[in-house]
Amino acid sequence: MKLLASLVAILCVxxxxxxxxxxxxxxxxxxxxxxxxxxxxxNYRHQADACHAYQILHKxxxxxxxxxxxxxxxxxxNSANPVPGTIINHPDGVDVYAGVPKDYVGKDxxxxxxxxxxxxxxxxxxxxxxxxxIASGPNDHVFVNFxxxxxxxxxxxxxxxxxxxxxxxxxxxxxSNQQFKQMLxxxxxxxxxxxxxxxxxxxxIYATTAANGKESSYAIYYDKLRRTYxxxxxxxxxxxxxxxxxxxxxxxxxxxxxxxxxxxxxxxEEFGDLRISLETVGLFQGLNDHxxxxxxxxxPSFGVQSDAVPSEDVPLAILKHRLADASSRQEALRLRRxxxxxxxxNNAIRKSMANIVSSAADSNSDVxxxxxxxxxxxxxxxxxxxxxxxxxxxxxxxxHDAALRELHKLVNLCENGLPISTIVRSIEDVCSxxxx
Length: 436
Known about the structure:
The protein has 2 domains: 30-309, 3-Layer(aba) Sandwich (Rossmann fold); 354-431, Orthogonal Bundle (Topoisomerase I, Chain A, domain 4).
């Protein structure tokens, strides 16, 4: 009898040890970095997207100490905003600005700060903004949402730009250092697909983009009262889906399919480790399932085409809307002058780039191909130098979205082997003669 009792005790201890060993490791924490990379009232939609994204994550249980928000913060209290202190992301939407953390605003919204925050470099962020960083570890899930303008191989910040190779270096380093279990990136920008062309599928990162590497993303929801666009198609589509779904049941793959189908203005793409798309959205946007759905925000996809405009056309579209709503002859005349000036400037931007290409081309170059081709970027050093020269001597790419649409021609010059010294000299010569 004693022998039997001893055997039972041994078996029980063994079972306890087996069960203890089978207990899963701690699930980890949820972290999020939300960025609106533009400023100016005509870019209202970018900060509206970012604020809405924060509200979704906050409502779904991610605490503010693990959500970092970067935005210029010049929209809610802008003199052009007829409803001061508020931002909306939908014509019938509620204020999404209230409660948003002011972690990094104004001049602190930079590419270097973004990379330091993302990579958890708290030392680099001491004395800047809130100092918060993504201090994630090997069991944690990280969600990154970036909204702004873009061009081949770069995304824009208010006065600088972040290049794809620098972003990829940071992501690769974070993966190697086990700074996350999985990462999900949603990127809203023109030509955003070019940012992840070289994203490996073994970094535990899954990214989706608003557009492929050769096309614009689109703005949506022009608001007559605020006289600007409230959102971007890709962004409002994923957020309106998150507003109404149970994020603990919906997979990222399901959300991607919905957003891809309803974003019928550009080609939504996916990159990296596609297996992550089988996880639930809640693992990245918050696990709280006690959230009241915001059903009124869901809009039919067939309504997009009539309201949406390419990002580079937003300033002109806003002026045309305002002209249609002009309340006086004087206001109409002023708006027509602004429209004419904007058209002249955009024509000057296109003409100056055509002249740069013609000037830089050698006798063996096909100028037509240099103007129209869409090469992938391999020589980032050449491209960076060319963009810097163009931004310095020609047109500010952070102010003029039409200038961003011309940068693929600088890619073509670099990828066709033209010396960077020749490209820079052509930029300086042509733009020294531009009078506008």
